[in-house]
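This section describes the prediction task in plain terms. A model, or a person checking by hand, is given the sequence of a single protein chain and must write out its three-dimensional structure as a string of tokens. No templates, partner chains or ligands are provided. The sample shown here is typical of the held-out split.
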Amino acid sequence: MSSAALRRHGPLGLALLLLAVLWIGPLPARAETSFAAHMVLHMGVVALAWQALWVALFVTLGARLFRRGVLQSGSPAFWRRRKGVAAA
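The expected answer:
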């Protein structure tokens, strides 16, 4: 993966990886019998992954809007793209 793609999708990938580790790992099975494991799973999803997803969303959208609006660069809005024209 290129450096630009990693910078662009890094926060979202990190949040999704955290969710995958929490839900696929051993915590869901242990949460059935242990209140502490249940709370670790709950706090991981609610406090960490949920906020990481929102931060990734706002940073990504904010950067795109800033590039398009203030810097007058970046790709055109998806509704203004020409259909059927190959990108050069």
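For orientation: The chain has a mean pLDDT of 78.
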